[in-house]
Every structure is written in C-alpha cells, then in structure tokens.
C-alpha cells in the first residue's frame, strides 16, 4: 500500500492513520496482516533516520506490543529509508514514532518480495493444461477455467504433490497459498507443506487445517517447498493451487 502525504502536514493524513505528537498509528484494515518492510520518504534530509517502528496486535482484549525483529534500517538516499523486519506473526497496527514524522511525505507498506515468482515448479501429474508453473505465475485468480491454477490427475495419481525449487536458498518469513475455488478448495485442506534446505534436510512440516498463511520461524535458508495432498483430504486426493507466494 502506498500513501502520499503533504510533507509534514499530518492533519491531511488519511483516516486509516491516528496521529499524536511525533506518533503515527496505521491500521492495516484487516484482522491479521503480515509485514515485510516500510518505505518512508521525508522532505528534510536531516530527519531521514529519525523514526522508531513497532507493531500492535489489537485483536484481543489487551493490546499486545510486537517489536520489529531483526530490524534492518537502510537509507537509500538522503530522503528515503527502508525499515525491514522479520515478522513471524500477523499484526493489525503499525506504529511509527519520532521527529521524522514532521517531515514525512510518503509511506509504502509491503508484505515483502514474493521470492517464488517464476521459479521452477513441478507436480506429480497434470490434469489437462493446468501446469505446475501456474502456481508461480503471479496471478492469484482462483478460477480453474481462468488458466492460472494447477491440477493433478485424480485417476492415476494417488499421492499428488507440487514442488517449488528456488534458484538460490532464501530466508523466508511466511508462505501464502491461494487455493482454487470450491469445490477444489476442499482438497487443499489437510495437505502438508514442507520445506527443505540446500542439502534437502527438512525444515518446516505443517498440516494445512483451513489456513492459507504459514509463518516460518526457522530462518535457515529454504531451497525447496513441497505441498502434498493426503488421503484424509478426499477418498481420491488431488491438488489444485492457484498461487504460492513465498515472502522474505
């Protein structure tokens, strides 16, 4: 999301922000949202590094403060700074504090870069033209007929799997799966998501119980991601994925 302000004039801030002196609270607009980085542009170069960032989870009775874990503060020019955090938990409020707010012109918030885009994908079988590469083409359309989802063959393939092999190992914050629409969506439930390092040693092993986002606490670089349907998914298991995003 990109927000443009009138530099330093905080009274013009959109209503998603709450402003107090030297404090800015940004509500993500959804119950749970993951964070990758924030880009800030200021008008006064002397204030480009005068920010403090943390997060709040207000979804429960008591507001929980979450720190920016493994913060990376990168000044790309005298008016622009990127602040990156390795966040493994969803948040619904971003808090900025500091003198830099008086000179703030632009805010851009991102979940991070999708490291799976256009990477090598394979599946154990293919139904029609619903190829494995459709899950990393950048299109999250969930309609199978739209030509951007995978689909295995439920007649010949009794253990359907889909595999992503990254060109280089990467540190991952979280994975996000876009399943196909009903009824194919039901087949992704109780599937297993696994990750492996460059030596093919297992890292993450989770069962999909009606989830679409999977945080990754283990910061060992990931080389391969495997999604496998199980027999509890259906009596004739199959696998259809419209997009897998890997954020790091």
TrEMBL record:
InterPro entries, per the entry: BG_Antigen-Binding_Lectin, Galactose-bd-like_sf
Name under which the protein is recorded: Fucolectin tachylectin-4 pentraxin-1 domain-containing protein
Superkingdom, taxonomy of origin: Eukaryota
